[in-house]
Amino acid sequence: MKHVMNVSAESLRVFIRSVLLAWGMPAPDAEITTDLLVETDLRAIDSHGVSMLPMYEQMLHQGMLCMTPARSTVRDAPSLALIDAGRGLGHPVARAAMLMACDKARLCGIAAVGVRNSHHFGAAGLYAELAADQGLLGFVTSSTSVAGVLPAGGAVPLMGTNPLAFSAPGGRHGPFLLDMSTSTVAVNKIKVHAFKGLDLPYGWVFDEHGEPVYDSQKALAICLAQKKGGLSPLGISTETGGHKGYGLAGMVQILSSALTGGSFSPSRNLKGDKRAPHNIGHFFMAIDPAAFREPGELEHDLEEMTDMLAASPPSCNGKPVKVPGDPERDAREDRKRNGIPIPPDLLEKLSLIARNAGVDDLSAYGAQA
Question: Which of 4, 80, 100, 255 has the fewest CB atoms within 10 Å, i.e. the most exposed one?
Fold first, then answer.
């Protein structure tokens, strides 16, 4: 019987860095990308961490991903900038763009930086949190490569999961950190369920006839095919607010790609060239609270809000009310102590990646059984 293997964060860090370097990624970019992927898994966002390596390897072999991108600043003004990512993986350019937005916001009060010609950048919340760590508010959106989400009332998937993230400095409680897809779940969560052999809850995926799909392997195939059926928008149906998730997805698409020059996945997919770069767009905004209020006043109010929320009676005994960011912080503490779980199907894929890259298998880096 196959068992889940728990891996220390440091073991995972060494493994991922070795793979990225073997793929030709420059050391500085490899360090940034590795740190972000490991941090994602530490926070139990398993859909966007090391489980992304198989997709990155496929993109690399198809020729759509450039590991040594020539990034360039297309536009630069006091309160905004636009960066061309040069077809590189999104993690390094996303971090740089958010930090640039923070620097500009300190001078102008508010600033935005757009990125085009990028690829998948992992968990949006990590970039929003960069702003909160500096005492600023952060807002992040991104388009996606897979058009696997059904528009409200539709049978053909035309939208991406189009994530958005928002952060604010929360004083002694840590940052308020919202990180969400505008679909009911991200497609990579379907992938994680498939790795674990788990069925899906009701409402995550529907087939072309509007019937719910529970088998995770079948659901993943539907989402990746991008033809008929797919993920539901946040809210699921029009009666339960699905039109709101659909509208949010449209907003994210406009900010991330229409504004920056990124692609709209259904249009790109019609061209039929599977080797074409994804041209994903990202949007980063930072706001300096000092432009609105005296130093410390925002943090004071957020501490008061969080205290009241945490003290409110829970609907289920033993499950206290939390604010966005709390579950990830709790998971991080647990996984730093006990390791990051790697399901057997994912471990097999990572072992194949290691062989292809000519690096040691994950088990060679002190992985814990």
Answer: 4
